[in-house]
Amino acid sequence: MRSVQHYHLAGLTFSFPFPLHGFPTTAPADVEVRPGPVPRSLPGEKRIGVWFEAQPGRCLFQPDDRCRFLIRDGGEVLFDIQEPATVERAALHFTQCILGILLHQRGLAPLHGSAVRLDDRGIVLLGDSGTGKSTLAAWFHATVPRAVFLTDDVCPITREVPPRIAGGSPYLKLDPGVHSGLGLKGTTRDIPCEGNRIRQLALLAEHPPEPVRLHQIYVLRPDRTCAVPTLRKLRHPETLEALLNNTFRRCYLIALGLWQQQFPLFARIAAAAPIWELRWHPDRVPLDQVGELLLESCRHTACGPVQSPAPARTSW
Q1: Which of 105, 139, 159 is the last residue of a domain?
Q2: In terms of domains, do 40 and 118 share one?
Q3: Which of 21, 126, 155, 223 lies in disulfide reach of 279, CB 3.0 to 4.6 Å?
Q4: 217: which strand partners?
Q5: Is residue 22 part of a domain?
Q6: Is beta strand 67-72 parallel, antiparallel or unpaired with respect to 58-64?
Q7: pLDDT confidence band for 172 (50 / 70 / 90)
């Protein structure tokens, strides 16, 4: 029998029977994760791609033939792991796919993005996989005084007014070389990702962040026709489209017909925080140039001064 440990992640506390990439805590659990009977299919299910089957309040996740997860009502996850060697991969699945489904079931808006805090302002970076969200979050954390990494991949936004980034994670997923290139402190370890891609899991935070008010959102869209990086402020209905398209595991909402229930929350988010589209040529524009453009944008909409970054240290 594995000993149960509690971890803080994305603003919630989880009881876990194996190590999780979260903040250790002694707080009571909001979500219980335990071994249990997990069916191979859900009767009358809505299939979501290859890995998911869903019913109202229930989601079956089968990433491979060695492990299955049943996510129920935002408060419980049952798992069936066939080989001990998959425990590490199960923990990675939990902090990504499973966490996103849990947040949907609890009524939050899990956005597919990274986030940093500039003083008391929450900055969110959205975009498809590989667009540079994590790298830019690492740049802010490494080079901008008082900038603090909040979360990576899954960014939970609350329903309160004004909306807040609900919590974060201690780790950031980076391409090999980014951690050392930026001079980041902390430990790293290699992890396998989709398509046999190897990335580094970098420990950047030791304590869970407090919820922070959402201040600015940037949608990253690499564009090889752009000679210089450009920012364009999105207008309605582009703002809602950007939020819907960058919702983590939006296929879950589509399959269960829950899109319309999220519209009021997305409308509050769009009304509370400016949403910008960032376009740049990823092979020609240095990382520092893109980061300083975003920083200048934050200054123009800030309530107070944000300090300038440290000297440039790296590029894309």
Answers
A1: 105
A2: no
A3: 223
A4: 124, 275
A5: yes
A6: antiparallel
A7: confident
